[in-house]
Design a protein that fits this description.
heterodimer, A: alpha+beta, Serine Threonine Protein Phosphatase 5, Tetratricopeptide repeat, Immunoglobulin-like, 4 domains, B: Serine Threonine Protein Phosphatase 5, Tetratricopeptide repeat, 19 helices
Chain lengths: 692, 349
């Protein structure tokens, strides 16, 4: 059963501090600002809404989000209205959608740079919250320049503080820390402030404080027009937290209450309770699974002032408590106490000006296992609002100067109630961030280690061959091999009478068309020869051998059968003996004359060679004719031709006494004169060996 | 008298043997000539591209005269075309056994070794082929490939240059030389050669991809995107270029376009683990850590030895606050030889 809150007890754990130190102006928007006919469709309704918005705006920060919705609807009828833009901007500043404020405030300023006296301050706040520190500084200065020194003092306006925050902000945002900050999600966070997360030691329950509206009967606190503080708890479900439940029964009270911490063994829960004396810390014990009625903690730790948060050392023999009791450096301060020999807490001692500042310190938290204490402060080098700091105790027991946890954990908004886990890997805290669901939200901070280079996979197929090999790029078309297709002329050279082999006979094959010797060969000791001839055709063949008359004849290879690339041609040579004769077939004369034709040169050269190689022989050169014509004419012609040959030989250096000549006309035919072929054969010159 | 008879008999036998030898020799020459004639017929078929007929002729030539090296070589080439590498290798070995001066036989054997990824021995045989006078452009080209595979980029450069000298429009050789220059960090020289390759053969899509990657090295991201896109346009299924273009977009912090490209790669090639890895990385940038973790899961499922994917999944899990799981991933990455893993494991401890 929920206890109905009493509006008498209004002290809350923490108030919104973003810009409440200087109140924003509540300028009135008039109908004339719209320059629109009242009768225009929809405007009447819009005007009503504007009136509602103005009312909500005047009530305070808690209803700014509601006012904002109405202002935005009205803005459709005059988006150029400087006053309206100002109010929308100011409302945005009070929400987690503060990043929209700049646009509206700039427009307000553009339309009317005197729209309000604090327009520069609001612009500065907008730039400040949105990390545009240089513009923020310019506008802070512009705003403060309007005040005299006395006024600044009188109104307690600390010019330097804001400007310092901007400068710290620049430094801190230039060196962001490697964290991931995850909103705990809409299931946990509400559109109202949700803060001060407290993780049960078993890590399965998350307690926190929320100022959400519980039901329609819920009332708002006068101080900030927000709902009461209540404690909620959420159970863990895998990586997520379940929808939280209000912690009722004994832990609920008529006052604001906020969860602060839980003892290491989970048996005690510490709560803030906003009582009349400014707020105190209570503790409830867990008995048989139920929290008992909370009781004030040890009187020594409490003052007449306000105590808000408490943090115990890992051995629970020391603690820090936040209080504004007498002796503070300024606002809420951190005090230290420890158990004495009697097991009683000592009088809390202020941690001094090195830790506490003239501004508020809040949300103290002792690391579960280490001598490290986290807290939030509006002082030190805060970049705005509360920033989270950490201090560490050295071996000598001295606490270090607090160190700002850095951006993005800290922002110019409030960052508070930071709770680090024992592995220093993750923490929970509350903050106003641009991915929130309204007001302060609960966030989980994941501390990333050293910056890591992600391993992007790139791949290149460097070689075209590997991409698309051409199958037959390797292939060379073969070339034909040379095959020995030449013919061989083979045969034997023998003596014409004895039939004996003539060794070393020289055979020359003559291409008559080319008048060229195309092949030569020698007969072996068996008289056998083998000559490679270019092709199968008719050739002239000349065979010469020592002591033998030369032999010249046509070899009609074209008509012969080729067996195994061979054609056979045997030659019989006549020995040089007295009486041996030989027809000189290749001596040619002009018709009916004794003039030797030039084509006879080869035969005549052979004859000359015979005479040179056989220097003792004497020859009779004889001329012969066919039987055509008279004997006298033929005798004269045959003799003249024989004489021409002799003369030629003599001209070639052969001694004339080795040669005789004679004309036989047609008396010694060697063929039939009745045929042309026979007659051709009978027309000849021959020689006979007449002595050796 | 008796000795005389024996001598006569021996002489007779000897002369008979000589006659017999001569006869055999004649017979061999006759067979060889016949084999050559048939081989030449095979060559004529090969010229006409009738490799089946050519194969038969080479078979016939070898049936007639089995010590004839050339038909073995030519049959080996045909067997490569029909992908019968073992038989081809046997034929090639036989050709070399019969004629170790046959440079082309070394070239063909080297080619087969190359196909079998025996790069070192292929290199040796290509060198033999060149030494034995088979100095065709391809000899240098393939030797260049082997030198490239064996990371001897300076030698590869010389070989590809020789191939180009012998065949000025050898597009493949230009691409390979370009890639070699790229390995030697001569990116501008490489770009020039890739362009040459494409000017001679615009179908070498890989040249666009390679040129793009070189342009990235020179900081010309826009040019690179253009070339990757040309590669993809010419071959829409060329997932390598899609993946690389995704990388380029990623480096230009254009994560949405990178995501598109990587996603397309996974559609084209579902089993390509690097694309899932890259998808995961991109999703990390887009702060979708759960999505990233799933992509890395997929990459690891496809390739359980993918060290980088373990590393990256560790990052995703770190972002998700899953520190023990992240550490386990980094440890696995270390096991798989990822160099950076060790320093992150220190954080775990």
């Amino acid at each position: 059963m929920r206890i109905v809150k009493s509006i008498i007890f209004i002290v809350i754990l923490i108030s919104s501090i973003s810009f409440n130190s200087i109140s924003q102006e509540d300028i009135k928007i008039k109908k004339s600002d719209f320059q629109i006919e009242i009768k225009e469709v929809g405007f009447k309704e819009a005007w009503k809404e504007l009136k509602q918005a103005e009312k909500l705006f005047s009530q305070g920060l808690g209803t700014y989000p509601d006012a904002l919705e109405l202002y935005l609807r009205t803005a459709k009828y005059n988006s150029d209205c400087a006053k309206l833009n100002y109010k929308i901007g100011v409302c945005y500043l009070a929400t987690d959608k503060f990043y929209h404020a700049t646009e509206f405030l700039e427009r307000a300023y553009l339309k009317d740079n005197l729209v309000t006296d604090d327009i520069h301050f609001m612009l500065a706040r907008a730039y400040h919250l949105n990390l545009d520190f240089d513009k923020a500084i310019v506008n802070y200065k512009a705003y403060f320049d309007a005040f005299t020194a006395k006024e600044l003092e009188k109104y307690n306006i600390n010019v330097d503080k804001y400007i310092r925050e901007c400068r710290y902000g620049k430094e801190l945002t230039n060196q962001p820390v490697r964290v991931i900050i995850n909103n705990l999600g809409q299931r946990v966070n509400s559109r109202y402030d949700d803060y001060n997360p407290v993780l049960h030691p078993n890590n399965d329950l998350l307690y926190f404080t929320s100022r959400r509206e519980l039901d329609k009967k819920d009332k708002r606190i006068e101080a900030d027009n927000k709902f009461f503080e209540n404690v909620f708890v959420s159970e863990q479900a895998g990586d997520l937290w379940r929808k939280p439940n209000l912690v009722e029964n004994k832990l609920d009270s008529k006052n604001n209450e906020s969860v602060i911490t839980i003892s290491k063994d989970g048996s005690s829960i510490y709560l803030y309770n906003g009582q009349e004396n400014g707020g105190d810390i209570l503790v409830s014990e867990l008995k048989k699974g139920n929290w008992k009625s909370p009781k004030l903690i040890s009187g020594k730790l409490l003052s007449k002032g306000k105590e808000t948060t408490i943090a115990f050392s890992p051995d629970e023999r020391e603690l820090f408590i936040v209080s504004n009791q007498y002796g503070t450096v300024g606002g809420m301060d951190i005090f230290y106490s420890k158990l004495n020999e009697k097991g009683k807490w000592t009088e809390p001692a202020n941690m001094g000006a090195a830790i506490n500042t003239e501004y508020n310190e809040e949300g103290v938290y002792w690391h579960p296992t280490e001598d490290k204490v986290y807290f939030s402060s509006q002082g030190h080098n805060s970049m705005g609002g509360y920033d989270v700091f950490v201090m560490e105790r050295n071996e000598e027991g001295q606490w270090s100067i607090p160190v700002n946890l850095g951006y993005p954990i800290n922002t110019p908004n409030d960052d508070i109630f930071f709770k680090m886990d024992e592995n220093n890997k993750q923490a929970y805290y509350s903050a106003v961030r641009d991915n929130g669901f309204g007001g302060k939200d609960l966030y989980k901070v994941i501390f990333l280690g050293e910056e890591k280079e992600m391993k992007l996979s790139t791949e290149d197929i460097f070689l075209a061959w590997n991409y698309k090999s051409i199958d037959d790029l390797f292939y060379y078309i073969p070339k034909e091999v040379k095959v020995d297709t030449a013919l061989y002329m083979v045969g034997q050279v023998t003596d014409s009478k004895s039939g004996e082999a003539i060794k070393m006979a020289k055979i020359e094959v003559i291409d008559l068309e080319m008048s060229q010797v195309v092949a030569t060969g020698l007969a072996d000791t068996s008289g056998i020869y083998k000559i490679k001839i270019p092709k199968k055709k008719d050739y002239g063949v000349e065979v010469t051998a020592k002591d033998y008359l030369f032999f010249v004849e046509m070899a009609y290879l074209s008509q012969k059968q080729v067996v195994d690339s061979k054609v056979t041609a045997n030659f019989q040579l006549n020995k040089i003996d007295v009486g041996a004769t030989m027809v000189l077939d290749n001596i040619f004369f002009e018709t009916n004359k004794a003039t030797i034709k030039t084509e006879s040169a080869a035969e005549l050269a052979r004859l000359a060679a015979l005479l040179v190689e056989n220097p003792t022989i004497r020859l009779e050169i004889s001329g012969h004719t066919d039987n055509v014509g008279s004997y006298r004419v033929n005798q004269k012609l045959s003799e003249s031709r024989a004489k021409s040959v002799v003369n030629y030989m003599v001209s070639q250096g052969v001694s004339a006494d080795r040669l005789e000549y004679k004309g036989y006309a047609f008396n010694q035919p060697i063929a039939d004169n009745n045929t042309a072929d026979g007659r051709a054969k009978n027309r000849r010159v021959e020689f006979k060996v007449i002595s050796k | 008298m008796k000795h005389f008879k024996i001598t006569i008999l021996l002489l007779f036998i000897s002369s008979f043997a000589i006659a017999q030898a001569n006869e055999i020799e004649q017979e061999i020459l006759k067979l060889k000539k016949q084999a050559k004639l048939i081989y030449n017929e095979g060559v004529r078929f090969a010229e006409q591209g009738k490799i089946t007929d050519a194969h038969k002729k080479f078979d016939a030539a070898l049936f007639i005269y089995s010590d004839f090296a050339l038909p073995y070589l030519e049959r080996a080439k045909i067997l490569i075309l029909t992908n019968e590498l073992d038989l081809a290798m046997n034929d090639c070995a036989k050709a070399i056994e019969l004629n170790d001066k046959l440079g082309e036989a070394f070239y063909i054997r080297a080619y087969m070794k190359m196909l079998m990824n025996d790069h070192q021995n292929a290199l040796t045989d290509f060198t033999h082929s060149i030494q034995k006078g088979f100095t065709e452009p391809q000899s240098y080209y393939y030797r260049g490939l082997m030198n490239f595979e064996l990371k001897d980029y300076n030698s590869a450069l010389i070989d590809f240059t020789m191939a180009i000298d012998k065949d000025y429009d050898f597009a493949y050789a230009y691409n390979e030389r370009a890639s070699t220059k790229r390995m030697l960090s001569d990116y501008h020289g490489a770009i020039h050669d890739y362009k040459q390759a494409l000017s001679y053969d615009s179908t070498i899509v890989i040249a666009y991809d390679n040129m793009a990657s070189c342009k990235i090295k020179t900081g010309d991201f826009e040019g690179a995107l253009e070339d990757y896109t040309k590669a993809i346009t010419r071959d829409p299924d060329f997932y390598i270029s899609l993946n690389n273009r995704g990388n380029a977009y990623y480096q230009m912090s254009n994560y949405e376009l990178a995501l598109n490209d990587f996603t397309k790669v996974t559609e084209i090639k579902k089993d390509y683990a690097p694309a899932y890895n890259n998808l995961g990385i991109t999703k990390i940038e887009l702060q979708n850590y759960l999505g990233a973790e799933k992509d890395f899961d997929m990459a690891i499922e496809l390739d359980s030895e993918y060290g980088e994917a373990y590393m990256n999944r560790g990052y995703a899990r770190e972002f998700l606050g899953k520190f023990p799981a992240a550490c386990a991933d980094w440890r696995k990455a270390q096991e798989l030889g990822v160099e950076d893993a060790e320093k992150y494991i220190v954080e775990c401890e």
